[in-house]
Amino acid sequence: MRTVAARSRPVDAGAERLGLAIKRAEQVLIAEKTRVLRPFGLTVPQYAAMVAIAATPGISGARAARQCHVTPQTMAVVLAALEAKGLIERQPSDDHAQVLVTRLTRVGHALFRRADAAALAVEERLAAAFSDAELVTLRELLVRAAEAIPAPAAAG
């Protein structure tokens, strides 16, 4: 695992703060995905949950929450909304009766395919701004950025 070296100098006060630059890029991406998903009646969190469910049919809500980087409580709200729209179905697991497994319905699959194409088109527009080598570097830098700030230790 790569260790992060401490900076020998403070962040340049005249430069844009790194956190703000990352946040602005995220906000632009989310705003555009929100716009293209609206005609499908989906929010970005609902779409993200559908991505996880499509990739792993029978996924639990807890696992979907981990994959989407949200709390289980947030995922429960998202899944309830998708279920109310008839886009997913949840049933008790064959292995653990207390665990609900989630699958896209036929209607959910059809909607997801169309919504996914719209969301992927946004990501393709983003990717087009970079060369293949830059995309590799960008992904590596984003992974490193995510790993650079460890989560605070749980209070004991």
Automatic annotation (TrEMBL):
This is Transcriptional regulator. SUPFAM superfamilies: Winged helix' DNA-binding domain (SSF46785). GO terms for biological process: response to stress. One of its GO terms (molecular function) is DNA-binding transcription factor activity. It comes from Frankia torreyi. Residues 15-147 form the HTH marR-type domain. The lineage of its organism: Bacteria, Bacillati, Actinomycetota, Actinomycetes, Frankiales.
